[in-house]
Amino acid sequence: xxxxxxxxxxxxxxxxxxxxxxxxxxxxxxxxxxxxxxxxxxxxxxxxxxxxxxxxxxxxxxxxxxxxxxxxxxxxxxxxxxxxxxxxxxxxxxxxxxxxxxxxxxxxxxxxxxxxxxxxxxxxxxxxxxxxxxxxxxxxxxxxxxxxxxxxxxxxxxxxxxxxxxxxxxxxxxxxxxxxxxxxxxxxxxxxxxxxxxxxxxxxxxxxxxxxxxxxxxxxxxxxxxxxxxxxxxxxxxxxxxxxxxxxxxxxxxxxxxxxxxxxxxxxxxxxxxxxxxxxxxxxxxxxxxxxxxxxxxxxxxxxxxxxxxxxxxxxxxxxxxxxxxxxxxxxxxxxxxxxxxxxxxxxxxxxxxxxxxxxxxxxxxxxxxxxxxxxxxxxxxxxxxxxxxxxxxxxxxxxxxxxxxxxxxxxxxxxxxxxxxxxxxxxxxxxxxxxxxxxxxxxxxxxxxxxxxxxxxxxxxxxxxxxxxxxxxxxxxxxxxxxxxxxxxxxxxxxxxxxxxxxxxxxxxxxxxxxxxxxxxxxxxx
Length: 527
Prior knowledge:
Elements: H1 7-15, H2 37-49, E1 54-57, H3 62-77, E2 83-85, E3 109-113, H4 120-128, E4 132-136, E5 150-152, H5 168-183, H6 190-202, H7 209-222, H8 228-237, H9 244-261, H10 265-271, H11 276-307, E6 315-320, H12 327-338, E7 342-347, E8 352-358, H13 365-370, E9 378-381, E10 385-391, H14 395-409, E11 420-423, H15 431-438, E12 451-465, E13 471-478, E14 481-487, E15 499-511, E16 514-526
Parallel strand pairs: 1-2, 1-3, 3-4, 4-5, 6-7, 11-12, 14-16
Antiparallel strand pairs: 7-8, 8-10, 9-10, 12-13, 12-15, 13-14, 15-16
């Protein structure tokens, strides 16, 4: 990385992320391209004709919550009564499990959304109870697949749906579109797209191909939304418009916090609020959960960091009574701090260790843990994030096997952050640069915000900001050009006059009608 980046070179790089160019909604594949979609649709239509009892089974993360919401609202719109359940993380565990079967007794047709592909035993129990099962999921398949009337999951080998990385809510949306077509009812599918966009971003699907098209359409819909929940969120966050960043950093954590701290059904109730008064009250409750989540997460992160050692290639830590709902976020924080994959476990009453893992860089954490199944009670997930449980007596053997597996895979860690698109001279930081970057929005998974590197920069001025001085504000100078910059949540110390190399993104700062450019600093290296 020796040459300075030009706008033309940046445009070429960003375009290369979109092999098919920019798709729009007219490029969406047909529902029937999913294996078993037509079969599932026919079964649902038949259940309605026979007035059978249908139960929707969701999941407690944002994707599961929005998938459940999409199904609930659709059946309300076509005026067919359905039951819905989201398992409680603490009492029921994940997805369709044996613990849920007594609660769905009397159901004729159960439909899972965003879960079910690993529910082999629960599917068997459904069969014994005479409950027919349709599984809709987007996760990787385990060696043994549940027995069900229909399985819609794009990761099945026989599935002809052309995109592998889609989330549960997208599949739920496709299912209701298919049912709508079969029933020949007049339903505006775009009304559901705003919920789907929230799930795509929250579940960190790559913002490419149809995902990008659905997110752009969904965000456009969100900004015209008449949904009381969305109005309440805009009002509370004082936002005129909602962006992909607002979903990722504000709305998704609030929705997620219900399932993490208490029960995800509170998030479904918020999203399906019938009036603004209910929506406001329910949003307040979610914000309280989120505040509690942040406090628990901070406390456990400190304890997990204290246990972690940089000698380990895969960090595995366990604690007493660590809040099960936040261990995944803690794993992500520790993983970023050590730049290594991390698994965080908490002891449950039954003497089991339960927890979550997050990967780092190009490491496939699912593959590493998959080779340790003999030590595990439960396990599922994907390359970047996993959930698992194991007996305490297996912990040391599990750790050793994880280290072995990691070394056997010969991972080479990227020394240079792959999101850095090039070296930038301050004279190239302009509104032309930000308007070029806007053409490739929304940024996120699979289409990361471009980061730049500038060398030999002088810290012209350094100030702290925030209640406890936890953020830093800079004036930065290179070749006589002065630019403002900020670095959030840092305890690093710098002095005016220091010479540094910086890694940053460029942001347009809108304030009281003025628009200025500022550098959002990620890494500052003293020279």
